[in-house]
Amino acid sequence: MNQTHIHLLITHLPIFGSMLGALVLLHGVGVKSDQTKIAAYYVFILSAIGATVAYLTGEGAEEVVEKIQGVVEESIKIHEDSATVTLISLIVLGTASIIGVYLTFKKSIYITSTAFIILFVSIFSFILVARTGYLGGKIRHTEVNDSVILNTIETGKVE
Predict the structure, then answer these.
(1) For residue range 97-114, what is the model confidence (pLDDT) as tens digits?
(2) Separation of first and last alpha carbons in the chain
(3) CB atoms within 10 A of CB 64
(4) For residue 74, how far is the Cα from the chain centroid?
(5) Is the dihedral of CA 145, 66, 58, 86 positive or negative?
(6) Cα angle 87, 92, 95; round to 5
(7) CA-to-CA distance for 154 and 150, rounded, in angstroms?
């Protein structure tokens, strides 16, 4: 298994983790369950770690993919730029989640407000990571490339 395999496997963790964590956190806030909030925070921390691994293996994946015929270098650059912003967002989410765990264990008066802030950051992070995943998919998955979709609509056939 090389960096490309690891990159492709791990990239889904921050996408689904940020979405699932947000749902779990929303539920935890709704039922006022500190244990559920902590579970969501752990999912966010794991998502941040996954995003870091995905980012660090991205360069190795790029080295392999850029040699494949039909891959457009600009699409890799756009994905890479988006990944940088997304990584920062997920690191903020993971760090905020560590603080959330700490405050919850300490029974701080800021548990609820921290949970709402983390929920907002998680939704923002999910939007960024979903976009980054979409842009990454456009590198090799021609079925999501706009030019292929437009050509299929215009001609009525897939080439």
Answers:
(1) 999 999 999 999 999 999
(2) 32
(3) 14
(4) 21
(5) negative
(6) 120
(7) 6
